[in-house]
Amino acid sequence: MSILRATIRPRPLHRAFTRHNSQLAARLAPSAISGSASPIQQLYDLREIDKLTASVAKSSPSNVNHPSPLVMRALPAPWLSASQPNLASQGSKDDLEVDAKSVEEAQKSLGPKHMSESYTTFDLPLASDAGLYDRYVNTSGGFRMGKLLEHLDSLAGAVAYRHALPTPTSSAASAFHEASAKAGLYLATASADRLDMFGRLNKENVRDLKFSGFVTWTGSSSMEVVVKMEGSNTDSSWETLMLGRFVMVCRDSKTHKARKIPPLAVDRDEEKILWAIGDEHQKRRKTTALNALDKVPPSSKEAGDLHELMLKVQEAKDGKIDGQEIVQMKDTEIETVQLMHPQDRNLHGKVFGGILMRLAL
Q1: Is residue 309 in a domain?
Q2: Which residues pair with residue 188 across a beta bridge?
Q3: To bridge 212 with a disulfide, which of 43, 79, 121, 267 should be the other Cys (CB 3.0-4.6 Å)?
Q4: Model confidence band, residue 225 (pLDDT cutoffs 50, 70, 90)
Q5: DSSP structure string for 139-183
Q6: pLDDT above 70 coverage of the chain, percent
Q7: Count of domains for the chain
């Protein structure tokens, strides 16, 4: 087993910046990207994005449905198949002997792909299968939301592999593993940028669930994946319960450096809007990284805010500022050590990202 150590610390002051939206994303991107808009406006814009994703899903030529939500969850090689089981990645195990022909085929696969080509879906019939529902019940009789987050991360991985690799012969985890080993690459979750919950999901409202997702934006070696969780209604229709986006990165399995991925072919109006929104998200991530406090000093306004706060703390006599108790930043730090078991591996023998999301919930 491996040991995972995580520390959560208070975040520094946010640095403000000016966003320049493209014409296509101007109507939807502002509230979808930031929290500056009102909750009602944010919900409205997210509903509009939901409609765009539904339009792309309908144009999917394959409508790929996975029989299991755990398709990207575990290393295909059984733990007892080796004389000395270990957690080494599959890449280091067989050194990923990629010949020149495989490299050439991988380069050919870099041709543009449509959003609909990466569309992937799977079902979780909780209302129809009482036995399956039992696996998702928490101590209070409600849902284990952490397990659903695991499925969302697994789905984002399946979508990313479907975009980065040639069309696999099957939806089994081994097919993705063999294709990625042949291409000499692997994909990892860089971040779960946002998850918005629209509807209720509790023991009084058990539904069959449908998960779906596809790539909406690509860079040189990274991509944004939009995922959706829908719940069944009594009239056999489906209602969107959750909408989120993940950033996936592609790496070379030998050098672990950035690896190019196929670009997106954006033709339809809905695709153009989704791509423009994803591009705005990427611009914001870059701006945030460039303006991080470990790279540039605080602005005059930030320094002034910190100085003002320091004076208020010094002047406080009862340990409160404006009626609110003062909490030291050091007192908000949380540190935990978690043991990662063989069942927690992903396709390449590393810790599955969905596990981290569940533990952080």
Answers
A1: no
A2: 249
A3: 121
A4: very high
A5: TTSSB-HHHHHHHHHHHHHHHHHHHHSPPPSSSSHHHHHHHHHHH
A6: 71
A7: 1
How far is the C-alpha of 55 from the C-alpha of 184, rounded, in Å?
34
CA angle 350, 121, 175 (to 5 degrees): 50
Proportion of the chain in helix, strand, coil states, percent, rounded to 5: 35, 25, 40
Placement of tokens 């196929």 in the chain: 262
Q: What is the pLDDT of residues 273-318, one digit of tens each?
A: 999 999 999 999 888 888 888 888 988 999 999 999 889 888 887 8
List phi, psi (to 5°) of 138: -95, -175
pTM: 0.75
Per-residue confidence (pLDDT) for residue 90, from 0 to 100: 44
Look at residue 320 and tell me if it is in a domain: no
Q: 298 in helix, strand or coil?
A: coil
**Which neighbouring-strand residues pair with 229?**
211, 242
Which residue, among 224, 126, 164, has the nearest Cα to 347 in the 3D structure? 164
Q: Residue 288: its pLDDT value, please? A: 87
SS3 277: helix
Given a contact cutoff of 8 angstroms between Cβ atoms, the answer to whether 17 and 287 are in contact is yes
Asked if residue 46 lies in contact with residue 330, where contact means CB atoms within 8 angstroms, the answer is: no
Q: Which of 353, 236, 277 is nearest to 56 (CA)?
A: 277
Reduce the DSSP state of residue 92 to 3 states and report it. Answer: helix
Q: How far apart are the first and last CA of the chain?
A: 22
pLDDT digits (tens, 9 = 90+) for 75-101: 556 666 644 444 444 444 444 455 545
Report the CATH number at residue 76: 3.10.129.10
Q: Is residue 303 part of a domain?
A: no
Domain carrying residue 132: 2-294+332-360
Task: Determine the Cα–Cα distance for residues 246 and 215; give it in Å rounded to an integer.
Answer: 9
Place of tokens 């805010």: 305
**Residues forming beta bridges with residue 123, ordered by sequence position:** 210
Buried b / exposed e over 17-41, threshold 16 CB at 10 Å, is eeeebeebbeebbbbbbeeeeeeee
Residue 321, in any domain of the structure: no
Element at 12 (helix H, strand E): none
Pull the structure tokens for residue 135: 């696996």
Helices then strands, counting H and E runs in the chain, come out as 10, 10
